TrEMBL record:
Pfam families: Glyco_hydro_25 (PF01183). GO terms for molecular function: lysozyme activity. InterPro entries: GH (IPR017853), Glyco_hydro_25 (IPR002053), Glyco_hydro_fam25_subgr (IPR018077). CDD domains: GH25_muramidase (cd00599). Belongs to the glycosyl hydrolase 25 family. It comes from Corynebacterium ammoniagenes (Brevibacterium ammoniagenes). Keywords: Glycosidase, Hydrolase. One of its GO terms (biological process) is peptidoglycan catabolic process. This is Lysozyme.
């Protein structure tokens, strides 16, 4: 849900390592383990357009935060509704103290223009769960026209083990439900839930909102039997909202959404299963090669400045700049990247991992950002380990064929 960095949204498939449209880059042999020497990688000059803001037959909606208010600019919620959106979920709070200054205005205007209104809380598991639930509930209870369930946005572990995270989440959800009288919804993404939550099945009694930036609706994780809401893009364009915005679809039509908003949480289902949406940027490709490149960069095996310069000239803030920032601040999540290299995860998962790493680092500072501080030797070992991964080797082969 974050829109802090969003520098990777236009990067697709294995060409994401270059991040420059319409150029030919030559990567040294050591850039990515397993690649032949001086491999030319051609980056496509055409960039896919932003995805359509709605999907026929489904209730579509947006989620927003202060990032949709550049220089204090208001959202024109009447235009959002006219553009086909049926619901809006607004960031309310983060941690135990931060509050979105635009919450009350956005909730009131979205509701006044006929949208179902919800809010969410960005979890900081390094802080007390009950204090955060109380902070969020205070904001939630001030929004008089709240119709959608309150949402826990769980995307970072902050050093907590899966068992500790599960305990933290139970405490938060129980306290929030007690204070709001509503069954909460849980927002997450596939990599985080499988790796950081050990694919826990303990929370399937709550509705699931899953982020996956790909054309095919994602399969549920953990013990869920369905995805209630799908965040399908972080780079949508909707009338009335400045810049990019997250696009979501509800697993149902407008009537089902109304029932869901009225508390009938079983009303969702039957619309997302097997759905493919053709238009827009596809970040559903395997991330293994790109992760290997990041680990190689962290190990000093590839120089970033040339890629950064080319990306800036093309007006794209790309992968090298993001990773370089995280490395320089000792905030690159190396352990998580190793997990991702050894699993079946997408470029969308990678975008969300790095986005959250940068957000937490920016909020907490480099000293206590809650992400791995790994030396170059460790990063080099991680890159070598990634190169032994069969999926990685297969992807390297595909990249080699593309470049020949």
């Amino acid at each position: 849900m974050l829109v802090v960095m969003r520098k990777l949204r236009l990067l697709t498939a294995v060409t994401a390592t270059a991040a420059v449209a319409g150029t030919l880059l030559v990567l040294p042999a050591t850039a990515i383990p397993g690649l032949p020497a001086d491999l030319p990688v051609e980056v496509p000059g055409d960039i896919a357009p932003a995805p359509a803001s709605t999907v026929p037959g489904l209730a579509s909606g947006v989620d927003v935060s202060r990032w949709q208010h550049p220089d204090g600019q208001a959202i024109a919620w009447d235009q959002v509704r006219t553009d086909g959106q049926s619901f809006a979920v607004i960031k309310a709070s983060e941690g135990a103290s931060w509050t979105n200054d635009h919450l009350a205005e956005d909730a009131a205007q979205a509701g006044a223009n006929g949208l179902q209104v919800g809010t969410y809380h960005y979890a900081r598991p390094g802080e007390d769960p009950r204090a955060q639930a109380q902070h969020y509930a205070a904001q939630y209870n001030q929004v008089g026209n709240h119709t959608l369930p309150p949402v826990l946005d769980l995307e970072v572990a902050e050093g907590q083990s899966p068992e500790q995270l599960a305990g933290w989440t139970h405490e938060f959800m129980n306290e929030l439900e007690s204070l709001t009288g509503r069954t909460p919804m849980l927002y997450t993404y596939r990599y985080f839930w499988i790796e950081q939550m050990a694919n826990s099945t303990e929370f399937a009694n709550y509705p699931l909102w899953l982020a996956a930036y790909q054309p095919t609706a994602p399969q549920p994780v953990g013990g869920w039997d369905k995805v209630d809401m799908w965040q399908r893009s972080d780079s949508g364009r909707v009338a009335g909202i400045a810049g990019n915005v997250d696009l979501n679809v509800f697993n149902g039509d407008e009537n089902q959404l109304n029932m869901f908003s009225a508390g009938q949480l079983e009303a969702s289902g039957g619309k997302l299963e097997g759905l493919t949406v053709e238009e827009g940027v596809d970040l559903g490709a395997d991330a293994t090669v790109v992760v290997g490149a990041i680990l190689a960069l962290a190990a000093g095996l590839i120089a970033a400045p040339a890629l950064v310069d080319a990306a800036e000239q093309a007006n794209l803030d790309g992968l090298p700049a993001v990773v370089t920032d995280l490395i320089e601040q000792n905030n690159l999540p190396v352990e998580q990247l190793e997990e991702m290299a050894n699993g079946n995860y997408t470029l969308g998962d990678l975008v969300m991992l790095l986005d959250n790493a940068e957000h937490v680092a920016g909020e907490a500072g480099a000293a206590d950002a809650g992400v791995a501080d790994a030396g170059l030797a460790e990063a080099g070992a991680a890159a070598a380990e990634a190169a032994e991964n069969p999926e990685y080797q297969q992807a390297v082969g595909a990249l080699t064929e593309t470049a020949q």
